[in-house]
Amino acid sequence: MRRRGMPQILRQWAARALLASMLLGSALITAMSLPYFDFETLPPFVIEKLPLRFESLWLGALRIHVAAAALGFPLCLLLMTRASQRRANWHRWLGRLAAVLVLLALLPSGVVLAFDAKGGRIVTAGFLLSAAIVAGAMIVGVRAARRRDLILHARAMRYVVGQMSVAVVSRALIVGLDAASIDPSVAYVAALWAPVLASAVVVEWFSRRPNFGHPNRVQLVERIRRELSPLVLVVRVRAFFRPITGDGR
Amino acid sequence: MFVLSFVPSLATADEPSLVDWTQHRVEAGIIKPLGERAGSRFSRSRPPPHESRVRVTQTTLSRDMQGHDFVPFSVDVRFGAGNWQRDDIIGCVYRASGNLFVKRGDAYFPASLLLGKKVDPVSGVCQAAPARS
Question: For A193-237, what is each residue's pLDDT tens digit?
Fold first, then answer.
């Protein structure tokens, strides 16, 4: 039996806690965003934007963005789990769905919203930078997956999830900075830029660590390759049924 | 001067001054409902202000084009121990009806807009008619 060291166990629990907190944050954002789909009333976030140059376009973009994020972020989190990565077919199809959601719905609508972001050009620039990182990383990640370059794929997807996590971290920071009596206009800028830059730095730092996520990178790649191979799947299915057929002699 | 102090005032002792009336009307019609509406938010909307104050920007009544009297006001807000941010809400209240209007961009809307109602701008409100020479 393989023994795992304490740091590895701690790392695994930290990763699980991060995943759970992001899922919880995503669920909270979705719950708080439901009023955007009440066509009879205006939520506070919309009221404070009024008057808008292109109100219908902006409201449409907001609803598309919220719906795409409500589906896309949990989906991306799910795709980061080993449970999903073990099921190669599911992982591939869910990955395609996530890529389409992000590239065709989340990002274009986010770019439209960015130009009317409160806080002015500095906030617009922050949202556009985050969108550029997500778009670039998603395209690189998808192309890497098609080439079966799983290391690059994993790294690129960490960038995507890192930027998507900005939605949760940023809101948590807004709440925290408000509790610390920081002026909301300052808090809004800080709560956007800090997680956008920090998540990119953290992802890059983790990706450069030689032992990140697995004691041996070559071993990890081999393991994923084995799991992705249809032949191995057949062997596994046969291995699963063999004891049963064996008992039936 | 001594004689003047015995002349009865047109306002009764129980009737609040125009400034007090405006402040109460704005607090009841805007500040209080906004405070009740703002719960714990995990959204990008601005957190509710820690303090709000109503400033009546004109102590006398103004008359609009339709001949209705109104009083303009401003709401200032404060977050934590920071400075007061002036004119967070600008609007007016009508003396006879008590109707409240708020400014968004260049237009005035019924104050229910701030509470999430979809309302159209109302032209001519909160704008004093030009003085007759």
Answer: 999 999 999 999 988 877 655 555 566 566 666 555 555 545 454
The residue of chain A with its CA nearest to that of B120 is: A51
Whether residue A171 and residue B105 make contact (CB cut-off 8 A), yes or no, is no
User: How is residue A153 written in tokens?
Assistant: 């794929």
Residue spans of the domains in chain B: they are 15-37+49-133
CA A194 vs CA A77, A166, A180, B80, B112: distances in Å: 21, 9, 17, 22, 36
What tens digit of pLDDT does each residue of B3-14 get?
444 444 444 455
Q: Do B45 and A182 touch (CB under 8 A)?
A: no
pLDDT at A211: 61
Tokens standing for residue A49:
């934007």
pLDDT tens digits, one per residue of B66-94: 999 999 999 999 988 788 999 999 999 99
In chain A, count H helices and then E strands: 12, 0
Task: Give the pLDDT mean for A106-135.
Answer: 96
Chain B residues whose beta carbon lies within 8 Å of the beta carbon of residue A42: 113, 116-118
Query: Measured between alpha carbons, how far is A159 from A168 in angstroms, rounded to an integer?
Result: 15
Count the residues in chain B. 133
Each residue of B104-124: pLDDT tens digit?
999 999 999 999 999 999 999
Test B43 with A45 for CB contact under 8 angstroms: yes
* Cα A65 from Cα A37, distance rounded (Å): 12
